Amino acid sequence: MAFGTQDNSDEVMNEINMTPLVDIMLVLLVIFIITIPVMQHAVHVELPRASNQVNTDKPETIRLDVDASGAYFWNDAPLQENDLAAKLTAAAGAQPQAELHIRGDRAVRYERVARVMAAAQRAGMQKIGFITEPD
After folding, report:
1. Which pLDDT score, from 0 to 100, does residue 87 have?
2. Could you tell me which of 75, 130, 77, 135 has the C-alpha nearest to residue 104?
3. Residue 88: which pLDDT band, with cuts at 50, 70 and 90?
């Protein structure tokens, strides 16, 4: 016993049933219509006020150059290697602590620059940077 038409043909239905798809889309539309206005309401919070005051005690910047021959220069003044540790210790003890910018020549051996970095670390320098030139 068959429902519907009584013919015995085995034809495949080649149409998509759109009713469930439309029902799902309408349900999603109703959900979005209800939830979007709820999300638009923000919680009002009184934020603290802060003033923008310029920090007057800017730390000094020390430029330590290492030239191609391995000689050291402290802010363009020649510096002996045995005086380097004392200068770095004095700079590390200053408040606010100075920033150390190391400028190593391209032709200098890495060993010379590594000695400066190790001495700065032992002295307690917190901010060490390298100066390079763009290509």
Report:
1. 93
2. 130
3. very high
Could you name the CATH architecture of 61-130? Answer: 2-Layer Sandwich (3.30)
Preceding peptide of 20 cis, ω within 30°:
no
The vertex-101 CA angle with 100 and 104, nearest 5°, equals 130
Phi, psi of 17 (to 5 degrees): -80, 110
Biggest alpha carbon distance in the chain?
109
Condensed to tens digits (0 to 9), the pLDDT of residues 45-57 reads: 777 787 777 766 7
Q: What are phi and psi of 133, to 5 degrees?
A: -110, 140
Q: What is the DSSP letter of 75?
A: T
